Amino acid sequence: MKISIIVAAAENGAIGKDNQLLWRLPDDLKRFKQLTLGHPMIMGRKTFESIGKPLPGRTSIVITRSVDFAFEGVIVVHSLEEALKKAEEIDSEEACIVGGGEIYRLSQGIATHIYLTKVHTEIEGDTFFEIEDPGAWTEAERIMHEPDERHIFRFEFINYIKKADK
């Protein structure tokens, strides 16, 4: 099964603050939908709470330490391994890791792809993402987006594939 990390990060690695995204980039949201539609999305509880509800056309698998957490329409698990097992049971060819910071850190060793939106700004955050072993990845594609009336920041879509020997 393909395991894809999908993340948007500023140049300083910031991905969020106070459980909220740091920007609104419509083309990035469109890409997120295209990448995740039809695939299970694995996320931490705080990320799910920031989204607020299960997204249509995707199965939400929420990892939490809480034994009391429940939400209609989501699968609740207590480890990344359990989340991946549930994704395989759904018979999906791809599982999408969509946050937050701790889940990204836990999943880098097993991920096969990273879909990074690199936002060209430095912004204050309390949650961060960085590629822990850059030598393990090959850049497959890079698409630049300049600021416009809908996007305050310049940003790039960068796709990475894990090298076969890693």
Structure description:
The protein has 166 residues and is an alpha/beta fold. The protein has a single domain, classed as 3-Layer(aba) Sandwich (Dihydrofolate Reductase, subunit A). The chain is built from 4 helices and 10 strands; from the N terminus they run ββαβαββαβαββββ. The protein starts with a strand and ends with a strand.
**Count of DSSP helices?**
4
Query: Which CATH first-tier class would you pick?
Result: Alpha Beta
Helix content range: 10-25%
Large-scale geometry: globular
Radius of gyration: 15 Å
Q: Low-confidence runs (pLDDT<50, min 5 residues)? A: none
How far apart, in Å, are the first and last alpha carbons?
A: 16 Å
Biggest sheet architecture: 8 strands, mixed
As a percent range, the share of strand residues is: 25-35%
Strand order of the largest sheet: 5-4-3-6-1-7-10-9
How many discrete structural domains?
Answer: 1
What would a concise description of this structure say?
By secondary structure, this protein is an alpha/beta fold. Helix content is 21%, strand content 33%. The radius of gyration is 15 Å and the shape is globular.
